[in-house]
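re: that complex we talked abt at group meeting.

here r the seqs, copy pasted straight from the sheet so there may be weird spacing, ignore it
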Amino acid sequence: MSLDLDAKARGKREETKASNRQAIIDAARQVFAELGYGATTVRDIIRATDLASGTFYNYFKSKEEVFQALQDETALRVRPRLRAERIRARTFEEFIAGSFRTFFDFVKNDHSTFATMRRNPEMQRVRIDTPEVVAGFDELRVDLERAIESGVVPDADPDLLMASIVGVAFEIANHLVARDDIDVDDAAKFATALFLGGVQALPKRKR
Amino acid sequence: MSLDLDAKARGKREETKASNRQAIIDAARQVFAELGYGATTVRDIIRATDLASGTFYNYFKSKEEVFQALQDETALRVRPRLRAERIRARTFEEFIAGSFRTFFDFVKNDHSTFATMRRNPEMQRVRIDTPEVVAGFDELRVDLERAIESGVVPDADPDLLMASIVGVAFEIANHLVARDDIDVDDAAKFATALFLGGVQALPKRKR
Amino acid sequence: MSLDLDAKARGKREETKASNRQAIIDAARQVFAELGYGATTVRDIIRATDLASGTFYNYFKSKEEVFQALQDETALRVRPRLRAERIRARTFEEFIAGSFRTFFDFVKNDHSTFATMRRNPEMQRVRIDTPEVVAGFDELRVDLERAIESGVVPDADPDLLMASIVGVAFEIANHLVARDDIDVDDAAKFATALFLGGVQALPKRKR
Amino acid sequence: MSLDLDAKARGKREETKASNRQAIIDAARQVFAELGYGATTVRDIIRATDLASGTFYNYFKSKEEVFQALQDETALRVRPRLRAERIRARTFEEFIAGSFRTFFDFVKNDHSTFATMRRNPEMQRVRIDTPEVVAGFDELRVDLERAIESGVVPDADPDLLMASIVGVAFEIANHLVARDDIDVDDAAKFATALFLGGVQALPKRKR
DNA sequence: CATGAATGAGAGTTCATTCAT
DNA sequence: GATGAATGAACTCTCATTCAT
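got the structure back, here u go
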């Protein structure tokens, strides 16, 4: 028995044993980022691990399930930061600026996660399906609706407003990842100015 | 007489060839839209056709190649409309408004194509690789740069401006596809107002 | 009609029209030599031709059939030379020496044919099946039997004698093909001396 | 106790692994012999087994790889016998005679292996590539060269001498396989007499 | 629980052959 | 008879998943 333990201790990088789950998620993040969701196989994931193929199925039912877990985990990491930003913000402008900056910062410093997110086929679907992610976006949405109610933002369709923020954020994030000469702060200022300026010019909503 | 027959023969052949190619592309568009690029197999595509499996390979070397052809074809359909819009436009505002409207209209009335485009893993990459698509985006970019030079648009980073347009356009397009109660015209007005209003508020570019 | 002819005249190397059969055989010899029988496909053969794929089947039913034709043709080229050698020969020794020399000469100067013959899976079988080839070996055998009857060669099993000649001939031929420093004449002298010397030492046959 | 179980478990696994590998090799030998290398497919091989198709690839990367393993295994079976023969032999004559007899015996009693070897396209190449086989022929060659040095055999080109032995051996082996009325011992005597007699008659080598 | 070989469905692809032109 | 695209059986190989150890 003790022999067994020793063997494992040697074999694995002492990975806080029992956290195989984490090892799998980490491997998945890395591999997804490298190959894209469609191209990576479960084999690729476990190969990037010290575990045996069968072990995968003790933790996840399928590739899709790890992917979901990965998304959740990712959202779990950004959300607190976004929430902190929201609390710190004194004005709607500060809130938007802070959110963009936080997101861009995250993207710039957590390359592989973002790469996974972007290069992904079921991105869309997963963004909606995964509870953590839904929650993250919902919080933003709630704030937007509050801003509309309080008159800070003109009475526009919240869906479209959300879409604009998300679209601008993700697309600019792509450039941040691709180019080295763009500064996170500049990008955040750009996005904030564009969005806030744009919002003021919005037509009233048809009711 | 024999010449005539030959001519006809060749005519008929060319005809079936063209129609088979189109049949494959059409089937591909449909299937990609339904299953997403990663999940669809070459078999799925030919199954949606009355051709034999081997025939696929007379026209395309791989799944990726049909996908590219599909993208090209799609770009080929929108670009003339966008170009017409550009010519008709008297002001930058009209140009932007027209472009958004054209794009949204296309998306709303050509559902499956857009679905294919969005749900796609290698979207990003393909969008860059495919010559037709590159050209389409380049044209928009050129106009943007002209607008900057002529002072109509503040001197901002054209990459980021492009990213904003593209991001807003695609993300709103998603909602158009998902919801039935959004009007193409309203969406175009929203996007135009947001973008043009935002652009005016943009900070000067660091040089 | 004349147009058609012109086109062909241009397209093909004026190949004494109607001798498409020969074109196919020639292509087959070349391709078999390059890829080996098993690995070459009918496609490979017609690709090495100016003809269309379907045309192949106007001349041969299958790959196997061309191969057989190729073997026949080959045998047809060596046999007259071997026969001439036999007629010229004054003694059994001269006959054997001449046969070896002729064969080695043929091998050395008709590389690709021999390569085809050697690298071939069904070599064995075909050597037996193909009438021309059978005939070629039978002639040699008849001479051997005559030599036995006339007492020039000890009374040994003709099959084994044949096998010895054939084995030595083919195996040495391989070295001729593989090495550049072996002279056809030396090889023939070697084989002749070995065989004739050996024959004299042979045990009487059990009857 | 648990240790014991583990040991047994590992034992059983290793056992099935080894037996599966052998099952595949055996099936391959049989099928290659029946259809020839070129014509047999990996499917044919596993079909001759009670394993699943995918299992093949747990043991061999390709058809070529099994073939090589098969050749190795074959050589591994004859070589010890040839080596024993060499050790027992008191004279060069005894050595040659023993080698022929051993080889013919092997051929006669291990039909399918020899059939595989003969009917094979890449015979040549494989004979050279496979380490075991190379080694087997090298040993014979070394002995030949020693015999030349010691003056037992005239100073002839060792390549050609080898070719003669090999050619005679293989070609006569064919007859042993094809005919039932040839005795292994007679064949060995024939080949030995032919070769030894022939060797004495050989011309001096050009230097 | 971990392991890793076995499984077999199914993916992509090739190719001998047919047949309308 | 020549053409060359269409055909579809069959092949190689991968991979998610299971299950004995």
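couple things i noticed - The domain at 2-199 of chain B is CATH 1.10.357.10 (Tetracycline Repressor; domain 2). Chain B has one domain: 2-199.
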